[in-house]
Amino acid sequence: MNIKAKIFKKYLEEKEITAFNVEEVPEDEQNTVMFSSNIVVEGQKLPTLVLLDDTAFSVIRVLILNNALTSDNELKVMHMVNKENLGYKPFKLYFDRNGALLMDVCMTTPGTEEKDFDTLGDEIYAMLNLTIKFMGEKYRNWMKEIW
Q1: How confident is the model over 124-136, as pLDDT tens digits?
Q2: Which residues lie closer than 8 Å to 82 by C-beta, 6 or more apart?
Q3: From CA 105, how far away is CA 92, in angstroms rounded?
Q4: How far apart are CA 43 and CA 6, in angstroms?
């Protein structure tokens, strides 16, 4: 397990946060560890990952909706995603190859020693809270565009 994942796992244990499942990605060059959970927005449970690896970055990824991109709505939702991404927020929307709508939050987390990550848990949790707030403000309108 990489150093960031060890520190975040310890943070979760110390704070008695049990909402995450932890899984190391096998045969991964970047030594990635996935912390999976859900966030609830508008009554919907959205699968959420915290991806920690040996790079100088960490990612929070939210699966907003499977099959969001269709031939019927393609132009409209591509425009919606582009408009959101132009807002220069830390939240970036995109579609995977199956048409699922995802959102990534990329954080810089450089360092190689434990002392470099003293505030990592608090920083990730702060970004998760911002993500939940942002999703609460945007989700209903996104669903109107998609459907």
Answers
A1: 999 999 999 999 9
A2: none
A3: 7
A4: 32
Could you tell me the two tokens for 12? 């979760």
Query: What average pLDDT score do residues 24-31 get?
Result: 94
Closest residue by Cα to residue 30 from 9, 5, 60, 63: 5
Domains within the chain, CATH numbers bracketed? 3-146 (3.30.1460.10)
Can you read off the two tokens belonging to residue 21? 């499942």
pTM of the model: 0.94
Q: For the chain, how many residues are written?
A: 147
Has residue 114 got a pLDDT over 90?
Answer: no
pLDDT for position 112: 82
Q: What are phi and psi of 121, to 5 degrees?
A: -60, -45
